[in-house]
Amino acid sequence: VARHPAEVSGAARVIQGDVARSEIAAALAGVEAIVHLAALADASLSLADPVGYMAVNAIGTLHVLEAARL
Question: pTM (2 decimals)?
């Protein structure tokens, strides 16, 4: 598993961005495949900021899915 964009094969392109923003669709335009790994995972912090975690994990995933079908 690549830990840094420089470690990814030349056949792939790493796009780093904020999935919680709907502008992710423009960055994903024309791609053939998407591997979505963006998430906040610390359960204790999610209790302190449930809305923030929802924005990244659920709404962010929705933005990626919407971009994939365009």
Answer: 0.71
